[in-house]
Amino acid sequence: MAQGFLLISFCVAFLSIFLFIWIKKDRRYESSKSVASAYDDWTSDKLLEKLWGDHVHLGFYGLPPKKIDFRYAKIVFVHQLVKWSGLDKLPPGSRVLDVGCGIGGSSRILARDYGFDVLGISISTAQIKRAKELTNEEISCEFLVMDALDLEFSEASFDAVWSVEVGPHILDKQRYADELLRVLRPGGVLAVADWNRRDPMQGELNILEKLIMNQLLNQWAHPEFASIPQFRNHLKQSIFSNTSIDTDDWTHQTLPSWLESVLEGIRRPEVLFALGPKAFLKALREIPTILLMWFAFSKGMMRFGVFRSSPK
After folding, report:
1. What are the angstrom distances between the C-alpha of 185 and each of 96, 161, 190, 233?
2. Bridge partner residues of 118 (DSSP)
3. Is 191:82 a contact under the CB 8 Å cutoff?
4. % of the chain beyond a pLDDT of 70
5. CA 268 to CA 189: how far, in whole Å?
6. What backbone phi and psi angles, to 5 degrees, belong to 100?
7. Exposed (0-12), middle (13-18) or buried (19+): which is 115, by Cβ within 10 Å?
8. What's the chain's average pLDDT?
């Protein structure tokens, strides 16, 4: 009896602490500084890098989704977006801007496998420092700390602009669209992939969905998600628009990534133990949000949108 009571008490205490850690709002969006701070923190302890490799973005599993290695799926995603966007039609030496480059995983693939001259930018000082450390001098990759809403380049500076899973961290999505197109040369290639909410025209969020959405925003420094049609309109209506915009929905092709993200921690427990108790608690904190993301994407509350330029 006493042992059973102690076990129940331990479980209740553990769940209480776990819930307290998760509902904390210390990572909710306040400004671009809160986004930079969150990514500095995620990068400095190397938790995500050790668990997930060079890429924080989702993987591509095909349609219907196939069972493939978690990290390899992320590499496949890069090549699929290159092919879908038409980036592979550009000649080697083309100048490509990677907006929100993380620790440089996609930038290195674009430079190494396609011969592009890639410049990656991130608002996170820690990410840029780590991207430089991981990049071989033999490939044409540079990295700079820079705000996506204030790109320090003249108009039409790049042959292609690449941006993956950046939009949710940005409040002014029209300005984000404007900056992407401002630095893209006429006839250049735009390749964007983002987490998007269900379009309001397809039904407003119900009470449960609003509660879920609130957590998805607060936990990962997101001010708001745009729907696929909404962001397409931002691109179309930009004062710098000189191209048509095509979109597609890759929700089902990327959906396995969420559960695989959790399973990767189970497959690599030595990583969590090696990084210490703080990293272990942080990993636990991420699990409910990841599972909510899986639920939201699987139920149609969230969608994974891709966007590309196309000749008018």
Report:
1. 11, 9, 10, 20
2. 96, 141
3. yes
4. 91
5. 38
6. 80, 55
7. middle
8. 90
Q: Is residue 111 part of a domain?
A: yes
Tell me, what's the pLDDT at 16?
43
> How does DSSP classify residue 152?
-
Look at phi and psi of residue 136 and say left if phi exceeds 0, alpha if psi is from -120 to 50, else beta. beta
Q: How far apart are CA 267 and CA 182, in angstroms?
A: 43
CA distance 149 to 180: 9
Q: Would you state the structure tokens that stand for residue 274, as one six-digit string?
A: 């090696």
Q: Is residue 143, in this structure, part of any structural domain at all?
A: yes
Report yes or no on 276 lying in a domain: yes
CB 95 within 8 A of CB 184: no
Rounded to 5 degrees, φ, ψ at 51 are -85, -45
The pLDDT tens digits of the residues spanning 71-92 come to: 999 999 999 999 999 999 999 9
Q: Which domain holds residue 162?
A: 26-310
Number of domains in the chain: 1
Kindly tell me the number of DSSP H helices and DSSP E strands found in the chain: 13, 7
Tens digits of per-residue pLDDT, 43-67? 988 888 988 999 989 999 999 999 9
Segment 186-205, tens digit of pLDDT: 999 999 999 999 999 898 99
Any domain includes 147: yes
- Supply the CATH number for residue 76's domain: 3.40.50.150
- Start-to-end C-alpha separation, the chain: 75
Give the pLDDT band (50/70/90) at residue 19: low
Whether 245 has a pLDDT exceeding 60, the answer reads yes
CB 187 within 8 A of CB 94: no
Cβ atoms within 10 Å of 227's Cβ, excluding its own: 18
